[in-house]
UniProtKB/TrEMBL annotation:
Alphabetized Gene3D superfamilies for the sequence: 6.10.250.1710, ESAT-6-like
Encoding gene, per UniProt annotation: CHMP4C
Organism of origin: Phocoena sinus
MF terms in GO: protein homodimerization activity
Region described as Disordered: 1-24, 180-237
Pfam families: Snf7 (PF03357)
Biased composition (Low complexity): 205-219
Protein name: Charged multivesicular body protein 4C
Amino acid sequence: MSKLGKFFKGGGSSKSRAAPSSQEALARLRETEEMLSKKQEYLENRIQRELSLARKHGTKNKRAALQALKRKKRFEKQLTQIDGTLSTIEFQREALENSHTNTEVLRNMGIAAKAMKAVHENMDLNKIDDLMQEIAEQQDVAQEISEAFSQRVGFDDNFDEDELMAELEELEQEELNKKMANIRLPNVPSSSLPAQPDRIPGRMSSTSSSAHRSRAASSRRAEEEDDDIKQLAAWAT
């Protein structure tokens, strides 16, 4: 068994040691990353320094130049190992963060489920149905009340339509009689028209026909006025 195996076996044999929480493990992983990053920076500086020494000695001191290159190679190997270790730690940290997130989500969902169950324990589906029916009935009552208020309310308006129409006709007849009393009819002349004086012989025939047409027009107007008066009097009675 390797020393590494013995180390992990010995570490795991202690049953009394409690497992660290995810927060503690994440904090330690971040500390390790920070330590390895500093180590990485140190090795990069050493590599550049050894490379500068090898260039400085060059062919003048070949032994010193070779020793510098050997140290550079060791540092590069360590740097490669640290790069791999950092990649593994980053992957482990991300996985642990995701696990912690999933754990928190699951725990919160469990709390919400318990709270929902506690709320539903005080609810009865039969009571809910009864409540909804009661609400629907109250809505119907409110609708009937609104319709009752919106209806037209009559106070002693049951009158006889025939009596009202007869009274209206009497009022119209009175108004018409008042208007007719104020109308002045034109006077119809009772005497005949005066004789026309003698005219020039050449114009006798035309003058006679003009006078005849004038008398006919006057007679028609008088007859029309008489007819209008008779119709108006007949309508008034």
